[in-house]
């Protein structure tokens, strides 16, 4: 698979929607993830990321302007033991609860479909990172309508065992801006992952469309010790 420049990919797409990156740092020390949200409506843009225990949640920046919380207020990141769950919706809770009952990542998502936001039918994208005794693997999932047909749900899971140093995978909700918004197509994109959380955070944030970007979360997890390093950037401060 051809390596894609994450910086250029984001710069050339005014509206990828919400996006998840998971990979391994070049020095092999860190399991890495990033999650960003964008918005076109005032309701979607009226959000920030805040830390919530070991994870994060979205909340309204100005509660008085919150219109419909149903698809915008959720916990994008939760931690279950040595597993870190990252998603673009409340399926974070579905995965957490399912895996807590010994279901697999994929089995946990069987009860969910794409978002009910016709005519976009926004895909649900999800990721799981598993770190255990110095080993690390991850998977990404997308649940999407069948080419805009809400009567059929297409389910794809991409699992990555023994990830290669300096590489990661990037999946996002929309191919580009549009009306309706076209769902992501194909495999997650292969991208480079640097050693520095600061440079990775800066690269992603500065590459996102300035008008549409809302919030960014980046986490580096030491594979040997489990120690976590987290960065959160909110356009609304």
By CATH, the superfamily comes out as Inosine monophosphate cyclohydrolase-like
The residue-averaged pLDDT reads: 97
Oligomer: single chain
Structural class: mainly beta
The count of domains is: 1
Strand order of the largest sheet: 11-10-1-2-12-13
Low-confidence regions = none
The level-1 CATH class: Alpha Beta
Note the gap between the termini: 39 Å
Please explain how this structure is put together.
- This protein is mainly β and 237 residues long.
- The chain is globular and about 45 Å long.
- A hairpin with a 5-residue loop joins strand 12 and strand 13.
- It has a single domain, classed as Inosine monophosphate cyclohydrolase-like (Glutamine Phosphoribosylpyrophosphate, subunit 1, domain 1), CATH 3.60.20.
- It has a six-stranded antiparallel sheet, covered by helices on one side. A five-stranded antiparallel sheet has the order 5-6-7-8-9, covered by helices on one side.
- Helices cover 15% and strands 41% of the residues.
- The N and C termini lie far apart (39 Å).
- The model has no long low-confidence stretch (mean pLDDT 97).
């Amino acid at each position: 698979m051809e390596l894609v420049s994450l910086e250029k990919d984001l710069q050339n797409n005014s509206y990828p929607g919400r996006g998840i990156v998971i990979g391994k740092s070049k020095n092999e020390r860190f399991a890495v993830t990033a999650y960003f949200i964008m918005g076109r409506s005032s309701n979607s843009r009226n959000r920030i990321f805040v830390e919530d225990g070991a994870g994060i949640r979205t909340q309204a920046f100005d509660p008085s302007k919150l219109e419909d919380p149903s698809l915008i207020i959720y916990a994008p990141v939760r931690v279950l033991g040595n597993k870190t769950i990252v998603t673009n919706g409340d399926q974070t809770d579905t995965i957490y609860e399912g895996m807590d009952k010994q279901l697999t990542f994929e089995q946990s998502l069987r009860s969910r479909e794409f978002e009910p936001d016709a005519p976009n039918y926004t895909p649900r994208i999800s990721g799981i990172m598993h770190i255990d005794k110095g080993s690390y693997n991850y998977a990404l999932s997308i649940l999407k309508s069948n080419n805009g047909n809400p009567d059929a749900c297409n389910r794809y899971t991409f699992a990555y065992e023994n990830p290669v140093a300096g590489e990661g995978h990037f999946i996002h909700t929309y191919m580009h801006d549009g009306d309706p918004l076209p769902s992501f197509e194909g495999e997650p994109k292969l991208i480079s992952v640097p050693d520095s959380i600061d440079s990775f955070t800066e690269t992603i944030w500065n590459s996102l469309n300035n008008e549409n970007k809302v919030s960014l979360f980046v986490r580096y997890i030491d594979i040997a010790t489990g120690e976590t390093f987290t960065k959160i950037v909110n356009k609304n401060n």
